Amino acid sequence: SPEKTASKKMLRHVVLFKFKDSATPAQVKEVETAFLALPSKIKEIKSLEWGTNNSPEGLAQGFTHVFFVTFDDEAGREVYLPHPDHKAFGKVLGPYLDKVLVVDYWTQE
Amino acid sequence: SPEKTASKKMLRHVVLFKFKDSATPAQVKEVETAFLALPSKIKEIKSLEWGTNNSPEGLAQGFTHVFFVTFDDEAGREVYLPHPDHKAFGKVLGPYLDKVLVVDYWTQE
Fold first, then answer.
1. Would A5 be classed as within a structural domain?
2. Where in the sequence is the domain holding B85, given as residue range(s)?
3. Which of A50, B23, B55, B92 could bridge to A104 as Cys pair (CB 3.0-4.6 Å)?
4. Whether ipTM exceeds 0.90
5. In chain B, which residue's Cα lies nearest the Cα of A39?
């Protein structure tokens, strides 16, 4: 969970996926499992939270999955992005991915 | 901060804004301030965290602002969405808004 000590600013990495219509539930599960395995492989990931969209507002633009990653700082993100295990995840995701959206931000409260 | 007790599932409400190019810094600040005032007016908001995009990946599709709202449950969201103060916020935002994207999810860890 994205525990955040009151004073400590954290760097959030918010990743949204829309899967191809052709992606099967098993393939989507494979991607979820692969993402959830990343914290054990990349220590710069301080926390990971995720879920599937249930907004009633109809403003999700087809995105179904949200992965909410936390780093201590930009140095952590800089290790993560080119990390071999992150690249390997990208290969698992690639064939099933229709759209991805990423926004990162420093917590400001 | 989105403190989350380890066991307790929370309902996250992730709101992304892209402002019109014509929106001035002061107008954007007005929207930020108005959003940040909502927790004091709508008690169903259990926490609010926000920030502006600094992702180096170039996958933000123009979205600059992220507001990460937490409710206890869907009942909290159902009070929030039609709430007069939320509607009033929408009026402040409206003239400056280019795009909005909303995804909600139950935390799953």
1. no
2. 11-106
3. B55
4. yes
5. B109
Q: In 10 A of CB A58, how many CB atoms? A: 7
* B106 and chain A in contact, CB less than 8 A: yes
Are A81 and B56 a contacting pair at CB < 8 A? Answer: yes
**Residue A7: its pLDDT value, please?**
63
Summarised one tens digit per residue, pLDDT across range B33-72 is 999 999 999 999 999 999 999 999 999 999 999 999 999 9
- CA A93, A97, A101: angle at the middle one, nearest 5? 100
Query: How many domains would you assign to chain B?
Result: 1
DSSP output for A20-55:
-TT--HHHHHHHHHHHHTHHHH-TT--EEEEEE---
Q: Does A59 touch chain B (CB under 8 A)?
A: yes
Residues of chain A with C-beta less than 8 angstroms from the C-beta of B12:
49, 51, 66, 68
**CATH number of the domain bearing residue A55:** 3.30.70.100
pLDDT at B2: 56
Q: What is the mean pLDDT of residues B66-92?
A: 98
| A96 touches B: beta carbon within 8 Å | no
Average the pLDDT over A39-44 and give the result.
98
